[in-house]
Amino acid sequence: MTTRAEILSVAAGRSLGPGPVALAVDVGGTGMKAVLFDEAGRLVEAITAPTPECADAAAGEVVDVVAEFGAEFGRTHPDHPIAEAAVVLPGIVEEATGTGVFSANLGWRNVPFARILTDRLGVATTVSHDVRAAGRAEFALAEEMPGNAAMVTIGTGIAAAIMVEGRLVSAGGFAGEVGFCEVAVDTADGLFRGPIEHIASAAAIARRYSARSGTAVAGSLDVLGAMHAGDEIAAEVFAEAVDALGAMCAQLVAVVAPEAIVFGGGLSSADELLDGVDEALRARLDFHRAPHIRRAELGPVAGLIGAGLLTRSTR
Amino acid sequence: MTTRAEILSVAAGRSLGPGPVALAVDVGGTGMKAVLFDEAGRLVEAITAPTPECADAAAGEVVDVVAEFGAEFGRTHPDHPIAEAAVVLPGIVEEATGTGVFSANLGWRNVPFARILTDRLGVATTVSHDVRAAGRAEFALAEEMPGNAAMVTIGTGIAAAIMVEGRLVSAGGFAGEVGFCEVAVDTADGLFRGPIEHIASAAAIARRYSARSGTAVAGSLDVLGAMHAGDEIAAEVFAEAVDALGAMCAQLVAVVAPEAIVFGGGLSSADELLDGVDEALRARLDFHRAPHIRRAELGPVAGLIGAGLLTRSTR
């Protein structure tokens, strides 16, 4: 899980621009992160906490943690009274109404988070989607970002933030669920055909390596490490994931034609991932524009910065 | 090819709404169609002509035919002097500059049609893409069309007009090239894996039926006819195309989550196509919203009406 020190380090020197003192919260599958931005849009402080188990579909425990984050910043930074808040969530999030429609991992259904948190925190609270918020931050802060772009986050699952002609696409919260894109790629085990999440997510890479090698690994970064140490099975599993990501990018190109595709998540630190996707994608393109494949810059704080930006603009 | 009588019949009773007297031209792979709209936005007359062979990448012959359409309406309808024009083209069309970037079938490259035609016709001329223009018309005139929708046209190739939150997506002319989406579907010949155009376009359906049955057919509607007459190979080829279209629709859903997918082109007249795609798509969806699969209403005049609408609005 991301630590307070990591958040402070990545965010150092960045600014959202002027606006209200803001609480930004990123609700993840295992951890929650909160930061306080001052009126200049600079990060003042960060807190993390484990994501609580939710007893039911109403996610009251998550609301409690967000409220506690707000209260703690109130105690520790009374000179920065929170005037606005933004919370980003996983799953299907309908931004227009601030509703957490559905989270497979955390179990909630149709929770009107924006309304509940606005009441609970006592300040206007905007709710958005974690991957779209991260995309918002990357698209806004990266240099030379074209108006048509996608940001693909590879984690336990795979999802994308899609920007079309300068606007993030939400479609009621259902856009960008690219982890679900079916791909067909050749593998050492024969043809793989199924949702890309089952071959190229961090979880799938670890699982496939463990199954094929007989060696248990904690996560996909261990597979990357093994590959760098010369492990052929690790290289094979990684190459198959990269090929599948190239196929998925070709689908993105066919539908919305982004000029840049930004990769986020731990695996995107590997040059092999970016170079391999570029090659696998170009091998599938014809008359199309090949998008620039690039690495996300904001790492684990992208969602928090994207949330912060929501307190600086009308979407 | 569409006849004048068909155009007049489909367009009867429809109106673009008030605006300038307008020339609308649809440049197809084999035929060109032109209509004259009056100030009330009603269709006055239609003309068709074969699409000329182009000697080079400048497409001067196509420009000549458009100019001749304008001149003929000038002679036959001197009471309706053309005040504005819109021309829709196949291939890659960049609307912002009115450029025909690329047409595989007609051979042009980077032709500044809007500028050339504005000079030649002596009235402001807008240039757009045939499939996006058809989508514009279907989206604008059909009842209860959601803001997130796609229109898939099945012809010699397959392409889509994509509407995101009420706006057509162009991405420099490269969006919606869904014929290129790779799909993997089981067929009687084993696994098909490749661009959907190679299995589900009208041309592919005819070609695959001819190859598998040993009986030459003129086109995909003959395959549909054979299927209705109980031909099992025709039913098989058609079912494989429909399954592939369902896979492609699942990709559209994963990326932009349309709430409606409208099918155009001759094959969309078959209930089996719409029902089959709906079934094949739903079999692939999980937590997603299943889009409503519907039939285009404007048939072969959708592109002309979409062109006409461009003279009624600022895009």
Explain what you see:
- Two copies of one chain form a homodimer.
- Chain A is an alpha/beta fold.
- Chain A has two domains: 144 residues, ATPase, nucleotide binding domain (Nucleotidyltransferase, domain 5, 2-Layer Sandwich); 153 residues, ATPase, nucleotide binding domain (Nucleotidyltransferase, domain 5, 2-Layer Sandwich).
- Helices cover 37% and strands 25% of the residues of chain A.
- Chain A contains ten helices and 15 strands.
- A five-stranded mixed sheet of chain A has the order 3-2-1-4-8, with helices on both faces. Chain A has a five-stranded mixed sheet with strand order 11-10-9-14-15, sandwiched between helices. Chain A has a three-stranded antiparallel sheet with strand order 5-6-7.
- In chain A, strand 6 and strand 7 form a beta hairpin.
- In chain A, helix 6 runs antiparallel to helix 8 and helix 7 packs across helix 8.
- The longest helix of chain A is centred in the last third of the chain and has 25 residues.
- Chain A is globular, with a radius of gyration of 20 Å.
- Chain A starts with a helix and ends in a 5-residue tail after the last helix.
- The mean pLDDT of chain A is 94.
- The interface between A and B is large, with 42 and 42 residues.
- Chains A, B: This is ROK family protein.
- Chains A, B: It comes from Brevibacterium metallidurans.
